[in-house]
Design goal:
By secondary structure, this protein is of the alpha/beta class. The chain folds into two domains: 169 residues, Rossmann fold (3-Layer(aba) Sandwich); 171 residues, Dihydrodipicolinate Reductase, domain 2, CATH 3.30.360.10. Helix content is 33%, strand content 22%. The strands form two sheets. Strands 14-13-12-11-7-10-9-8-15 form a nine-stranded mixed β-sheet. A six-stranded parallel β-sheet has the order 3-2-1-4-5-6, with helices on both faces. Helix 7 runs antiparallel to helix 11. The longest helix has 20 residues. The radius of gyration is 20 Å and the shape is globular. The two termini are 26 Å apart. The relative contact order is 0.16.
């Protein structure tokens, strides 16, 4: 669902509400494409990319704008999969023809036809979650590496199909964006990896993701079969925890509720507690209800020798971006400029172009999705779930 410069509050943009519009936001798509037209590094051709699916609120346009900014990628085509322009316009905000004109791409109906005709190296799948396994299988079968816009899938069986498709056809599959490339989280992770807090024993992440209001009444995101925020917001927070504590999760407990979104079939508040296999405790707060300015991310890492707190909030709110506490006292941590979405896109493009491992591969994505599914089961039953 949806990722450009970090928003200081959740933006009403849909699946990627924790970020503002991507780098091309506020500019004409052709200008963005021109900005990314510089030659790729010597000796390397630009990755030839196509988009699979246009009936999505955020991903197709966001990806097109982001890819246009990367000299190592060329967006050449999009497959509309036979979806009518009325539905595409209702979700994406423009027709397939307008998308093609804006971003200078050629339209196709089918995946295989597009990959073969354009000689694509990779595709980005932007379809509804229950169709992800089918569309990854078709893309991989045509020989393309795949970037899959989260949520990975809505069942363990579909996750298995996606992992197997990559193995069977010898292609790379990346899933994202997660929350690990958010600059504040990267700063915290680097400090933890450097041993600056000793052993991390407790981690808490809070994520404010806007509201369901941005999805129109016919948008597929509102269909409970597609997983809703229980999977899509859970994806972000679990990814952050696993990037800081890269270990298996043993047990989860979750409480979900809908307090201020009467037209939604989903929760708009969620609390999760996780126990990792080394006894580390994780906690996640998910907010899908705030119709006012509120920090997008807050992260706390408590270790045996120190602690870290990071804050991605409103510009000028006076809250430090990242602080390390040790026995020597508080110390600010340097947070790089940039944003989660741009870094995620650049990472999978580089991995595919260099024949390297994806930044968040299908097996890690399956593990994250399994945890999200267990959390949903826990919230429905009122019982802890052992993985």
């Amino acid at each position: 669902m949806p990722l450009g410069p970090m928003a200081e509050t959740a933006m009403p943009l849909g699946p990627m509400a924790e970020t503002a519009m991507p780098l091309g936001a506020g500019t004409d798509g052709k200008e963005a494409a021109m900005a990314g037209s510089a030659d790729p590094p010597a000796g390397r051709g630009a990755l030839r990319v196509g988009i699979v699916g246009l009936a999505s609120l955020y991903w197709p346009r966001a990806l097109a704008e982001n890819l246009a900014r990367l000299p190592r990628a060329r967006l050449l085509a999009a497959a509309h999969l036979g979806e009518g322009d009325e539905q595409i316009a209702a979700t994406l905000g423009m027709s397939s023809g307008q998308f093609a004109e804006t971003f200078g791409v050629k339209l196709y109906e089918g995946i295989e036809e597009m990959i073969e005709a354009e000689g694509l190296d990779a595709v980005a799948v932007c379809t509804r979650h229950t169709l992800h396994a089918e569309h990854v299988e078709r893309s991989a079968g045509a020989g393309a590496d795949v970037y899959l816009c989260k949520t990975m899938a809505t069942t363990r069986a579909d996750c298995d199909r996606i992992v197997e498709a990559g193995r069977r056809h010898g292609v790379r599959i990346a899933v994202g964006p997660g929350g690990r490339f958010q600059p504040h989280h990267a700063a915290a992770r680097q400090a933890v990896e450097a041993g600056r807090v000793g052993r991390a024993v407790a981690v808490r992440i809070a994520h404010n993701h806007g509201t369901i209001d941005v999805f129109g009444p016919t948008d597929w995101y509102r269909d409970p079969a597609e997983g809703g925020p229980e999977l899509s917001l859970g994806w972000y927070v679990i990814d952050v925890l696993r990037s800081i504590v890269p270990r298996p999760v043993r047990r989860v407990f979750a409480e979900y509720g809908n307090f201020s979104s009467p037209g939604s079939p989903f929760m708009d508040q969620g609390k999760i507690v996780l126990r990792f296999d080394d006894e580390t405790i994780g906690a996640c707060d998910m907010y899908f209800s705030n119709r006012f300015g509120f920090p997008t991310w807050n992260l706390e890492v408590i270790g045996t020798e120190g602690a870290i707190r990071t804050h991605a909030g409103r510009a000028g709110d006076g809250v430090p971006r990242a602080v390390l506490w040790t026995s020597a006292g508080p110390e600010p941590l340097e947070v790089a400029e940039g944003d989660n979405w741009t870094a995620d896109t650049a990472a999978w493009v580089a991995a595919f172009a260099d024949d390297g491992p994806p930044p968040l591969d299908a097996e890690e994505a399956r593990a994250i999705t399994e945890i999200c599914l267990a959390c949903r089961q826990s919230a429905r039953t009122g019982q802890a779930v052992t993985l």
